Amino acid sequence: MDVTQWIIFFLVIQVLHGLATWKLYIKADRQAWEAFIPVYNAVILMKIINRPWWWTILLFLPIVNLILFPVIWVEIARSYGKNSAVDTFLAIFTFGFYSFYLNYVAKDINHIKDRDLQPRTEVGDWVSSILFAIVAATIVHTYFIQPFVIPTSSLEKTLLVGDFLLVSKVHYGARAPQTTVALPMIHDAIPGSTTPSYLKFPQLPKFRFPAFQSIKRNDIVVFNWPVDTLVDINNPYGEVRHKPIDKKTNYVKRCVGLPGDNLSIKDGYVYINGTKNQLPDRAKLQFFYKVILNGVSPESIYQKYNITEKYDQYVFKTETANFNRPQFQNYLKVKKIGVDITKQDSLQVNFTANIDQESFNLLKLDIAESQLHVNLTEDLATIMKSDPDVKSVTKDLSNSTTENIFPNAPGYTWNRDNFGPIYIPQEGKSIDINVDNLPVYKRLLTAYEGNTVNVKGNQVLINGRIATSYTFKQDYYWMMGDNRHNSQDARMWGFVPFDHVVGKPVFVWMSYDTNGKGINKIRWNRLFTTVGGNGKLTSYFIPFLIVLALFFGYKKFRKNKKTT
User: Could you tell me which residue ranges the Peptidase S26 domain spans (predicted)?
Assistant: First the structure.
């Protein structure tokens, strides 16, 4: 629904409300016309049902109002003496139209001015408490702070798998929900199922509250994954469906490219406008390395350096004459065994391949050495190079021209380690558009900016008109993981529009290590730590416990003092 449709819908609701309640307003010593004036009628209604005026604000908050409307329908009935279970049922399950009955049909009803607002039963008290706890939590969750858990290792060393974050929505400006009908505080699907927790219609126009700061380079940002259509995020080849922006899966990455930047990646390092991007000192880039061992077991190296992301394989060797035999090469071809030669001279060939025991025996192979593929920080790679148990450590940079890399179009031979240059669009800025750079910006033009794009010969048509340039309607960002060889990020799916930005992670309140044992499953040194900042990570868990103990101690002291 666009703005005009929402205005019409709002006015229709106001007319229906007036028609359903104007006599009830009169019975409460108000004027009939007050039931028809938008917003003002809600303020007066709060007085009639003896509730605070600020409930009116809650009526205009998406999702929150879904909880509050049934409460108000029941409150209207009770304000006129209709307190039975049947009255409550009819007020709720007629979606408020029970007020028409009260207004025109019900006899001998009178407004109860000083109605007792306390629930009459223990169950009613519990229901009332739970409802308003949900309302308060939904407001905080939607507009201020949202909990988030780190599911992958793309920002390993800065944020760990199992970190529980608090994400601030006020830093970059909280978004008003576009999805108006949804279960409170449930993001995509009903827990334990793939059933959507929301209705796609109606949708509110985009609106964001003013921000306290703009996104800065190298900020860690939570955003809605722009290309998400997966019913089950853990099944990339499963069923798909269209999702509203605010119901797409939440991702967390580091913003390495800002609107207006020219970005490129060289040997895994990001360059902005030709200058190498300098990460904060807490950030640790990771790459996969090929590590050749000096006769020791892979497990001993894994344990020594606490390596968790890894796989190992043998380097096989055979005489060059044997390797070059037609029978040898034909066997590899028939069995579809791919070979990666690591060393070759006139006497011997060393290679890696997926070789089973039968093939190993038939081809008369020997094992030359163990080769590990391990994910390391650059500091750890340097340390391992001086280890006598390690023969060599080589960064596993890609030289592929066929990787699944944005924009996935002919003529673009970029890979994960060498990419670009690419211009990151900025709101209000224009660029030339042609058939050569269209693959980079086509999804942006269509999915994010709402245009139709076609190509006719060498001409680009935007919304049916020949276009040689385009002016962007919003800012875009380039999000990447520090774990460069194990991160699903912008290199795979491109730009992140500003309307997809959720917020800024500010605090780790809990961290759980599934590989730990017993009490060590909790990473105690990460509890109550900040996400940003420089220097050594500092936990504020002990100060928090001290403040908490002082608070409860003070409350107990006050209570004892009152009883003496």
Answer: 125-278, 435-510
Rounded CA gap, 84 and 74, in Å? 10
Q: How far is CA 450 from the centre of its chain?
A: 22
Give the CA-trace dihedral at 20, 24, 30, 31, to 10 degrees.
40
Express each pLDDT in 501-516 by its tens digit: 999 999 999 999 888 8
pLDDT of residue 514: 83
Determine contact, residues 390/300, Cβ cutoff 8 Å.
Answer: no
**For the chain, what is the mean pLDDT?**
90
Per-residue buried b or exposed e for 91-125, using 16+ beta carbons within 10 Å of the residue's own CB: bbeeebebbebbbeebeebebeeeeeeeeeeeeee
Q: How confident is the model at residue 551 (pLDDT cuts 50, 70, 90)?
A: confident
Q: How far apart are CA 279 and CA 271, in angstroms?
A: 11
Residue 420: CB atoms within 10 A of its CB come to 18
Q: Report the C-alpha gap between 516 and 523 in whole angstroms.
A: 9
Q: How many whole angstroms separate alpha carbon 277 and alpha carbon 285? A: 12
Give CA separation, 268 vs 391, 416, 420, in Å.
24, 7, 12
Over residues 206-219, mean pLDDT: 94
205's tokens? 């126009």
CB 365 within 8 A of CB 317: yes
What is the H or E stretch that residue 563 is in?
Answer: helix 541-563
Q: Cα 389 vs. chain centroid, distance in angstroms? A: 42
Do 197 and 182 form a contact (C-beta atoms < 8 A)? yes
Q: What is the mean pLDDT of residues 447-460?
A: 94
Most trustworthy range by pLDDT among 60-69, 167-176, 366-375 = 167-176
**How far apart are alpha carbons 158 and 213 in whole angstroms?**
22
Q: Encoding tokens for residue 469?
A: 């340039």
Alpha helix positions (H), 489-540: 490-493
Contact 178, 244 (CB under 8 A): yes
Read off the tokens for 507.
């605090």
pLDDT in tens, 513-539: 888 888 889 998 899 999 987 778 888
Instruction: Summarize pLDDT for 180-191 with one digit per residue, the tens.
Output: 899 888 888 888
